[in-house]
């Protein structure tokens, strides 16, 4: 048991912290107001290896471990949650291809993703009628000659209009249930892939610097070389990737909350009422004490899940627990942080207002809190 | 950063789990019902080295670290929270300060028998008018020829009725405020020491606590623990460590509630299926399991920091605050999952509910933990 990061983990964290402070934080509020996609920022993060943190160096990644990834994600999200979600999904896609792709697929897609050339990766699993229940998907891939033709629509796709590389899930055998789902590698919208188009970009409560696309697949054709991880193996692949993705989103939530809590502690140390800094009032001090405690607990849960994944152990339960606790906690912490700021917290003059909106989605995407509880309860039945 | 236990830590955990399951758990309901001090279990814990786990083997301890201590505390408390607190007091509040502040001669005389379990200890800081506000001590220690004369009353002294040795706090200079507090090692059989009747409590009924009355108790200088006027530092640093023990106790109680409720939810059927098949029940269990794990990690972190001689006051307060809250929530939800069965003494969860409550109160209430944490946050910790 060792609660201190290794030198390498600390180096990655510091690298992410420095770039987040220098590059991301200063313009985060402006990107939020204008709804600017952080393309230049993503390319710069790629130069530092932050789009492929656990991807092997041979494929252009940073070759760091999962704890380093979680720490880096926290630092990025602490500065800008919109950038963080694009980074999280891109890392997830790059890692997935590096892990299960053929040599040709790895060479074709992974360096492009981690170098920033592809800008971002996208994970096209959800559909308008298949979110928490992905096996209910309606997008089909039918055999046409020696090629596959993909038809349907995908919803809630982070960076869906910007991503140069997409993994798209489709039904290849309707009779086989979740064993009839296959994942395909598809060049993204910026490549002008025939049949692939953006139906709409969502107008969201938060994460205004991240795009969320609904996509139409109208006869998108790909070859057998686009099949990722085998025909019929898509569902298992998605679940595996989401287990890891949950560590990324848990880290994102923790980063947002950490930034909010730090701002609230700073504010409470400066703002005075009744003749003293408000942090000295027990009513305020106790709010912050609770928030700091919850957040440390959630942080440890997330790092534990990362350590389990790194060790090659089963980590489904730990990742679900981490995402559940981290995202629920982050929501509570941002609420406390806003309350401590009083009226100021409700304005855009302070960053809390943005954190409060941004953090909300972490309880929803990559498995809602309710889905995490289903996963955890299922694991409990298997034995504590 | 890694979360695996060492071989030694795993061995202590397994030893504690085997002992708790085979010998403690079968007696827990009876101990609670009879309000009985589990003397035979304390003797067994002495044999196992559990009464001075983190004390150097040179002084009769097991020579393990605080991570191992926390793991053992959780296992014992999972079976019986009363037995857990007896262990916690002897380890954290008695052996620990003596190991840090006593002279070698004092250690030979007191620590070796305490850590090896030949003697049992208690810790007397609280008074009728000095609980959370520990500096408001009224027990006096007066300098006399050849030593001290002590008068006063101590309150809520866990192990008081059964202890051989007491780490005692007194005020010998009221004008000096908390710098006027001095600690002593008091043999409980000293002339003038009297214990009141055991407190009749909501929970942890197998742990005996009482008032201690001190009437002209004479102690020689070799009973001083630390420096004259240094008692507040002894008390506060000891409570930092004590909070880790109570956090571990709370994790144990929470785990008991979780495990009992999980087993019940898989057996009990309603509407044609085991009630864990209903999301309303399953989600409670998912939350409980998540929070128990989080509480354990906070507790282990505090213990690890103590082992590595790093500051851990804030982290110990966080562990106790969170773990005690989780224990109470878990026990409440466990009763809810058991339904009417949870409300009767035939099943163990009403005991967990009663036992959990004290963890939010003793060794610093949750409100005091928040003051400690907020103070650290304000200083930038």
Give structural notes.
Chain A is 52% helix and 15% strand. Chain A is of the alpha+beta class and 384 residues long. Chain A folds into 3 domains: 7-119, Butyryl-Coa Dehydrogenase, subunit A, domain 1, CATH 1.10.540; 122-232, Butyryl-CoA Dehydrogenase, subunit A, domain 2; 235-382, Butyryl-CoA Dehydrogenase, subunit A, domain 3 (Up-down Bundle). The longest helix of chain A is centred in the middle third of the chain and has 37 residues, at 234-270. Chain A is globular, with a radius of gyration of 21 Å. By secondary structure, chain B is α+β, with helices and mostly antiparallel strands. Chain B has 3 domains: 7-120, Orthogonal Bundle (Butyryl-Coa Dehydrogenase, subunit A, domain 1); 122-229, Butyryl-CoA Dehydrogenase, subunit A, domain 2 (Beta Barrel), CATH 2.40.110; 233-378, Up-down Bundle (Butyryl-CoA Dehydrogenase, subunit A, domain 3), CATH 1.20.140.10. In chain B, 52% of the residues lie in helices and 14% in strands. Chain B contains 10 helices and 10 strands. Chain B is globular and about 80 Å long. Classes of the chains: A alpha+beta (384), B alpha+beta (381). Chains A and B meet through helix 6, helix 7, helix 8 and helix 10 of A and helix 6, helix 7, helix 8 and helix 10 of B.
H/E series of chain A? HHHHHEEEEEEEEHEEHHHH
- CATH fold-type name of the largest domain in chain A: Butyryl-CoA Dehydrogenase, subunit A, domain 3
Strand content of chain B: 5-15%
Shape of chain A: globular
For the record, the CATH class of the largest domain in chain A is: Mainly Alpha
Counting DSSP E segments of at least 2 residues, the number of strands of chain B comes to: 10
| N-to-C CA distance of chain A | 20 Å
Q: Judging from the principal axes of the Cα atoms, what is the shape of chain B?
A: globular
Average pLDDT across residues of chain A? 97
The CATH architecture term of the largest domain in chain B is Up-down Bundle
- In DSSP terms (H or I, runs of 4 or more residues), the helix count of chain B works out at 10
CATH class of the largest domain in chain B: Mainly Alpha
> Helical content of chain B, roughly?
40-55%
Radius of gyration of chain B: 21 Å
Q: How do the strands of the widest beta sheet of chain A line up side by side?
A: 1-4-5-8
């Amino acid at each position: 048991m060792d609660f201190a990061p290794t030198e390498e983990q600390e180096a990655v964290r510091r690298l992410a912290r420095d770039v987040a402070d220098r590059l991301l934080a200063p313009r985060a509020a402006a990107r939020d107001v204008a709804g600017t996609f952080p393309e230049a920022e993503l390319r710069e993060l790629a130069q530092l290896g932050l789009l492929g943190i656990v991807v092997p160096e041979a494929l252009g990644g940073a070759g760091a471990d999962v704890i380093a990834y979680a720490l880096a994600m926290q630092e990025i999200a602490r500065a800008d949650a919109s950038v963080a979600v694009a980074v999280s999904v891109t890392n997830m896609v790059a890692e997935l291809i590096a892990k299960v792709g053929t040599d040709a697929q790895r060479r074709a897609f992974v360096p492009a993703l981690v170098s920033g050339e592809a800008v971002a990766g996208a994970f096209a699993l959800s559909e308008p009628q298949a979110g928490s229940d992905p096996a209910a998907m309606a997008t089909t891939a039918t055999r046409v000659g020696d090629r596959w033709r993909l038809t349907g629509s995908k919803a809630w796709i982070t960076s869906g209009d910007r991503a140069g590389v997409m993994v798209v899930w489709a039904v290849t055998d309707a009779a086989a249930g979740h064993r009839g789902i296959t994942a395909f590698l598809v060049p993204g919208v910026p490549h002008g892939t025939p049949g692939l188009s953006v139906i709409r970009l969502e107008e969201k409560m938060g994460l205004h610097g991240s795009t969320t696309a609904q996509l139409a697949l109208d006869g998108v054709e790909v070859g057998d070389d686009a099949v990722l991880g085998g025909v019929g193996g898509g569902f298992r692949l998605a679940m595996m990737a989401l287990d890891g993705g949950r560590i990324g989103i848990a880290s994102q939530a923790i980063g947002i909350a950490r930034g909010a809590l730090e701002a609230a502690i700073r504010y409470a140390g400066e703002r005075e009422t009744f003749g003293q800094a408000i942090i000295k009032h027990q009513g305020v001090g106790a709010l912050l004490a609770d928030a700091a405690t919850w957040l440390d607990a959630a942080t440890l849960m997330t790092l534990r899940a990362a350590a389990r994944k790194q060790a090659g152990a089963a980590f489904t339960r730990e990742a679900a627990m981490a995402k559940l606790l981290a995202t629920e906690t982050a929501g509570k912490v941002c609420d406390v942080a806003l309350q401590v700021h009083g009226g100021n917290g409700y304005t855009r003059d302070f960053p809390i207002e943005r954190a409060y909106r941004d953090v909300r989605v972490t309880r929803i995407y990559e498995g809602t809190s309710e889905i995490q509880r289903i996963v955890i309860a299922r694991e409990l039945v298997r034995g504590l | 950063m890694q979360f695996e236990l060492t071989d030694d830590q795993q061995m202590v955990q397994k030893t504690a789990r085997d002992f708790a399951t085979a010998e403690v758990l079968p007696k827990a309901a009876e101990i609670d019902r009879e309000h009985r001090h589990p003397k035979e279990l304390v003797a067994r814990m002495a044999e196992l080295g559990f009464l001075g786990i983190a004390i150097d083997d040179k002084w009769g301890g097991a020579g393990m670290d605080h991570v191992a201590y926390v793991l053992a505390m959780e296992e014992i408390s999972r079976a019986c929270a009363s037995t857990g607190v007896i262990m916690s007091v002897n380890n954290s509040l008695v052996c620990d300060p003596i190991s840090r502040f006593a002279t070698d001669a004092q250690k030979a005389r007191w620590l070796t028998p305490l850590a090896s379990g030949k003697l049992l200890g208690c810790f007397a800081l609280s008074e009728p008018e000095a609980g959370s506000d520990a500096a408001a001590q009224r027990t006096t220690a007066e300098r006399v020829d050849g030593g001290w004369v002590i008068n006063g009353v101590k309150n809520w002294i866990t192990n008081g009725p059964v202890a051989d040795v007491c780490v005692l706090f007194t005020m010998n200079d009221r004008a000096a405020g908390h710098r006027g507090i001095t600690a002593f090692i008091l043999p409980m059989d000293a002339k003038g020491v009297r214990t009141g009747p055991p407190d009749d409590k909501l929970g942890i009924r197998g742990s005996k606590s009482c008032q201690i009355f001190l009437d002209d108790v004479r102690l020689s200088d070799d009973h001083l623990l630390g420096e004259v006027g240094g008692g507040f530092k002894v008390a506060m640093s000891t409570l930092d460590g004590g909070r880790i023990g109570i956090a571990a106790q709370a994790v144990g109680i929470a785990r008991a509630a979780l495990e009992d409720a999980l087993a019940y939810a898989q057996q009990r059927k309603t509407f044609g299926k085991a009630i864990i098949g209903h999301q309303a029940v399953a989600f409670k269990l998912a939350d409980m399991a998540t929070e128990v794990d989080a509480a354990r990690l906070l507790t282990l972190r505090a213990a690890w920091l103590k082992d590595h001689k790093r500051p851990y006051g804030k982290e110990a307060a966080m562990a106790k605050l969170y773990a005690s809250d989780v224990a109470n929530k878990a026990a409440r939800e466990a009763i809810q999952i058991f339904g009417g069965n949870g409300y009767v003494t035939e099943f163990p969860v009403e005991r967990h509910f009663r036992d959990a409550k004290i963890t939010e109160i003793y060794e610093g209430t949750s409100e005091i933990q928040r003051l400690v944490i907020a103070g650290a946050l304000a200083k930038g910790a």
